[in-house]
């Protein structure tokens, strides 16, 4: 029998275990980062079932070895997928068969899959995060609402490991500290990797595993290939490191181009690419055999960190810093542009946050990384130049101008359609007038039948008029059909114009409301920013205390070294290092959040200054207008209104100045 809803259970509480269904329809990196969550729930004695995509099923078997895996063949992040789609029927049936006590939606933004499962599992305790429903680009937001019983409130830019801690705390009912992800690929995969390395003539522990290519959908988040060529050529030539280009089969074309660029510099890079569906376990074993990982933000980066390899990564700002590597040591560099994070829905001409990361700085960091000068998790956020900021602002301006031009083209099209409809109506009226004149002429000609000599002529003209009348009626019918079609089009266009005008009025009303409340909102934002900064500082202090406690434990372990055997001592030291690494990771996350909040506060202060300058300018203009001599002359002549405070000021002046009173008299 499962524990009651909302109540902690497991070996630590003495209560029965639960059946927990976890929806995890994401990619390799997400599954790896949630391995500590799976391990924490399994360690409490709970029975797990995890919904995964076919690509990550092998890695999910390593991340959650005791869990039942439910395969989801559909991609819930694609547009147009509805909750009642038949491609989700198998997953829903397997979920009902598992009969969970708790349904846990692991993604920060839940998808159609979670909406379907939450509706099917109404008897379970349903838990999700505050990211809301995922909406693909160019698709309208869905009408259905969240069916979760509990929503965990977390910041979007919080690291995914910290989000997993919040989910574990909600399920277990107590504070949970998760260590960094770890994976054991197994001896069989290691032997297979050794065979591959022998065929490629690469020594274990000496080569660089470079994941630097991309496919069509990930090009926006990758460093330019020519810069990867320069960096890898410098690294290999200066430090004597062989190169192995790794990735998926769909990244092969770009990787071949990078390999050709390296060959022109006298290098011989090796290549390994998995099948289209992914040889993820084999890739993890190869990464474990490398000296370190070099590449972009992708799933293999988290695989390398989980199997204990150092990581050197060039990042973009699309989801920064949620997925930064947790390896020790590691080096991460990105360009801190003001439009980050954008969830990789980049509206600039190019993704400056990653494309313009300076090559010289990355090359210098690679030398430091190779020499061992970087021992922890180092994060470098390069500040953009003024020229770069001006370029980004120019791109935003051009995008706004494009939107405006598109709106003008739409308005011109509507105007042309209305003119065409008007011309059609005028043509119809002219045809009707001609028909009326023709019928009147026929009637006049028929009335003159008393002249025998004109009978034949009238009969002939009558026949001609009848033919013309039939032709005119045919044209009238055609014109009526065209007018009806044009009328429908014109009505549709008028409806669109009315809708656009209504939207414009609503937008203007919203802008006016925002203008009226700007000062109040800026003050409130400053207060919230101060509060968030203070909370983040408190979390940093807590993380520092945990780190100090871990160091004290390590010192205590060293003091007990003479009394404890070497194997036990190494095990305790390894555990202490993992705790210290986790504490350092949390401290670094808090430092990044504080840095972001400080930047937001500066932006808010700048906005407040701009608002005050605008108000001061308005007051000056108003004062100049009120002090105009023509307005004063108009007040004396009685044609300009005198405001209440001007009347009070005039009375005060007149009452205290006898000359002025006499002059006014």
Polypeptide structure, described:
With 665 residues, this protein is an alpha/beta fold. 58% of the residues lie in helices and 9% in strands. It is built from 20 helices and 13 strands. The protein has helices at 28-33, 35-43, 57-63, 89-98, 112-120, 160-172, 187-200, 225-239, 252-263, 280-289, 299-306, 352-355, 359-371, 386-447, 455-516, 518-559, 566-626, 629-637, 644-655, 658-664, and strands at 19-23, 47-52, 68-71, 102-105, 125-129, 150-152, 208-211, 243-247, 270-273, 292-296, 311-314, 330-335, 377-382. A seven-stranded parallel β-sheet has the order 9-8-7-10-11-12-13, sandwiched between helices. The protein has a six-stranded parallel β-sheet with strand order 3-2-1-4-5-6, sandwiched between helices. The radius of gyration is 37 Å and the shape is globular. 31% of the residues are buried.
Key structural traits:
disordered N terminus, 13 strands, disordered C terminus, six-stranded parallel sheet, 665 residues, seven-stranded parallel sheet, alpha/beta, 20 helices
C-alpha geometry = globular
* Alpha carbon gyration radius: 37 Å
How is the biggest beta sheet arranged? 7 strands, parallel
Number of beta-strand segments: 13
Q: State the separation between the terminal residues, measured CA to CA.
A: 99 Å
What structural category characterises the helix and strand content?
A: alpha/beta
Average pLDDT metric: 80
Low-confidence stretches: 1-9, 448-452, 658-665
Tally the helices. 20
The largest sheet has its strands arranged as 9-8-7-10-11-12-13
Name the assembly state.
single chain
Sheet-strand content, in percent, reads 5-15%
Amount of helix: 55-70%
